[in-house]
Structure formats: structure tokens, C-alpha cells
Amino acid sequence: QKKSKKSSETLTFKRPEGMHREVYALLYSDKKDAPPLLPSDTTQGYRTVKAKLGSKKVRPWKWMPFTNPARKDGAMFYHWRRAAEEGKDYPFARFNKTVQVPVYSEQEYQMYLHDDAWTKAETDHLFDLARRFDLRFVVIHDRYDHQQFKKRSVEDLKERYYHICAKLANIRAAPGTDLKIPVFDAGHERRRKEQLERLYNRTPEQVAEEEYLIQELRKIETRKKEREKRTQDLQKLITAADTTTEQRRAERKAPKKKLPQKKETEKPAVPETAGIKFPDFKSAGVTLRSQRMKLPSSVGQKKIKALEQMLMELGVDLNPMPTEEIVQMFNELRSDLVLLYELKQAFANCEYELQMLRHRYEALAKAGSIGPLSVEGAHPDGQTGLSIEEGKGDPKDQIIDVVGAPLTPNSVRRKVGGAEQGALRSPTQMP
Question: Where is this region: Disordered (predicted)?
Fold first, then answer.
């Protein structure tokens, strides 16, 4: 019986695994009561201590009149205020900021501010409205007396006001002082509002056409960047081929003497795009020559397959005996073959692009927008020269857009099919 009583008194619920202690504490309290519906806290904890009110007398408040210095009509208002602050100025009057509009005399106007397009009475009326409405020129234009004076625009009012302010600042300034004279360009403001009005008055067709032209411009810029990048890559390949050829000729002509190690490192560096860059094994320890024949990971699988096929066509063993001379010659051969492969790809891309432009030109010539295509003859380097006969259309119709779609090595295989389709397309459907 004693054991059963103890077990019943110490009966507890075990917290499930994965449940945080704070979440479990919300389910059951010490008295096993249900959690409250509303949050409640009976302990002080980290809560802010309540204000302790003393037994002193509070400061008296009084319903008193006041005037606002910002108003010129002397209106009287009432509000609650502490009795100790009776007779003081209205505290919010300091936020009333007014614009200091300059005042000119009759003599200054006749000597410096006279203008044939403006009378003295009209200028005084403008400055009076500027003081009343704090240079809010839209309101000034609305309240302007257009019946008594000439009808003016907002830009005309601004230009006259700021011109007089600049004149008075120059006249009254002390010699040698640096002035910040306000300048208002009325012509620029008129053009800006005119452009804004045209922008708001566009039709949905014009908006759609503008969006289409912006998209086409982005495509042209993207294709231009891709074409420039391809040109740079091609130039790198040509430079690398020339550099490699010059190095090989220099090595063949040089006498076979043992040179110091320093002079061997003084060879001109070949760009990274020139063939294959094999890693140098300079670490301590024993290495195999066959490791120097292993292709680096930067060479893709496509180039590796093409390289193996070219070696098989040349009758070269893919795994020769790794002697010192054979390793060096084998690596140089593979590097040259990879460089040749890249040059062939670049040549095929250029040839395909030329063929595409030729077919496009023929399609435009058939449409009658430009003259026919005539082949003059071969250049001394073996390339075919093209001459364009003048057509009857406008000069802008004779321009050929050379911004074509970006070319890839795989697109060369579809050269013939793409050329035939390009000849059958209309000029508006060409890429």
C-alpha cells in the first residue's frame, strides 16, 4: 500500500521527444490545469515597474486664450495650457516658415529691372502674389489677373521673378562675395512639359511599338557583344597559332646546346587558348612520365574525342612509350592538333555566317529592295570578293543588317538546310 501511494503521488507526464521545454510547459501547469485562453502574467519578472504617484499636488492647467503670430487677422483661439505658461507665445509658431520675397524701389526698377514686355504695375502684381502665396507659382498663375494684364504662363512668371531676384542680388552684393544666384531656364522647362504631355498622350499602339523597339534594341546589343566576343576569341586563336609557329621555327634554328635553366624560362608565354596547357610537376618525389601525358580536366570530352580521331587518322599511337623525347613531342603534337581543331571550328563558323548573309542578300535582292549580287573574282589570298550594285531604293533599304543570331559549332552541320530556308524567307522574317 505504501508503494502504491508513492507511485500515485509522483505520477508525471514525460515530455515527448523533439518538443521544446517551453512548448511543453504551455500544455500542462503544476496543477494540471488547461492553458488559459488569454495571455496572463501574474509575476513581475522583467516587466516595467508601474509609475508610483506621490502625494504632491499636480501642476494646474487652465483654459486660456491665445493668438497665433502666423496669422495677420488677430484671430483669438482657446486651449488648455499649464498655468505657469500663461502669457507666453504660441509654441508652434516657430514652425511657420515664410519666403523672403525681395522688395525693390522705384529707382532700382527704372535703372536695372525695366523690361519692355513687362510693365511696372504687372511686376508689382506678380511680387504681391508671390508674397501672399509663398512662391507657389501654380496658385499664383491661377490667381493672376489675366483680364487686366497680359496672359502669362507659369514659366513666364517664374522667369520674370527669378530674373529680378538675380539682378537685385548682383546689385546689392558686396564686392568680392561669392553669390549663389538662382537661375531658371524657361526654355528647358517648356520643352520638359511638352515632352511630358506627348508621353501622356501616347496611344496604346505607340506604347506597344516602343516596348517592341526597346526589346529589339536589347537583342541587337546582346548579339553585338557576342559577336565582339567571338572576334576576340578568334584573334586569340590566330595569335596563339602564330606564336606557336614562331617558337617552333626558333627552336629548330637554334643550336642544340645545353643552356642554363634560367634561359629556358625566358621563352615568350603562349596564351592559355593555344592548344593544351599541361600541368608542371615540380613537387618533390618520384613521378611517372605517363602522368605528364595525361590530358588536363580543362579539355572537354568533345575535344578529347576529336583529338583521338585525328591521331588515329595520322596513324599515331594513342599511348606511346613514355620516354622523355616522346612525351615532349606527343604533348606538342596534341597541343597543335587541339589548336588546329579550334581554328577549324572558328573557320566553319565564319564560313557559315558568310553563307547566311549571302543567302539573305539574295533574298533581299529578289524582293527588289536592293540590287542583285555579283561575284567579281578571287582575291590574291583565295577568298571570294562580293560587290553590291546600287539599287533603285532608298539608301537605308540597301543596308544589310549583319547582326545575325549567335552561332555555335553545332549550327555548322545545319549550314545547307539553314541557307535554303533563309533564301525562301521574306525580308521581314529574316533573323
Answer: 224-270, 375-431
Strand blocks (E) in 29-131 = 61-67, 76-82
Count of C-beta atoms within a 10 Å radius of residue 243: 15
Domain segments of the chain: what residues?
Answer: 61-95, 106-201, 299-364
Residue pLDDT, tens place only, 271-321:
444 466 665 656 666 666 666 666 766 677 777 777 777 877 777 777 776
Instruction: At 202, list the grid cell.
Output: 501616347
| Nearest by Cα to 345 from 406, 301, 409, 273 | 409
Work out the number of other CB atoms within 10 angstroms of the CB of residue 360.
21
H or E segment and range at residue 307: helix 301-314
Residue 315 gets which letter from DSSP? T
Q: Which residues pair with 66 in a beta bridge?
A: 77
Question: What residue type is assigned to position 169 of the chain?
Answer: A
Contact 165, 182 (CB under 8 A): yes
> Among 402, 8, 361, 348, which residue's Cα sits nearest to residue 220?
402
Cβ neighbours for 69, distance < 8 A, ≥ 6 positions apart: 89, 90, 93, 96
Question: What does the block give as the cell for 271?
Answer: 596564351
The closest of 326, 335, 270, 248 to 298, measured between CA atoms, is 335
Contacts of 197 (CB under 8 A, 6+ apart): none
Query: Amino acid identity, residue 136?
Result: R
Long-range contacts of 155-160 (CB under 8 A, 24+ apart): 155/186, 155/189, 155/190, 156/186, 157/126, 158/184, 158/186, 158/189, 159/184, 159/186, 160/115, 160/118, 160/123, 160/126
What is the spatial distance between Cα 226 and Cα 403, in angstroms, rounded to a whole number? 10
Per CATH, the homologous superfamily of domain 106-201 is: Homeodomain-like (1.10.10.60)
Q: Let me know: does 320 contact 326? Beta carbons within 8 Å.
A: yes
- Rounded Cα distance between 116 and 33, Å, is 94
DSSP string spanning 225-282? HHHHHHHHHHHHHHHHHHHHHHHHHHHHHS------HHHHTTSPPPPTTSS--PPP--
Q: Give the tens place of pLDDT for each residue, 219-253.
A: 999 999 998 988 888 888 888 777 777 776 676 66
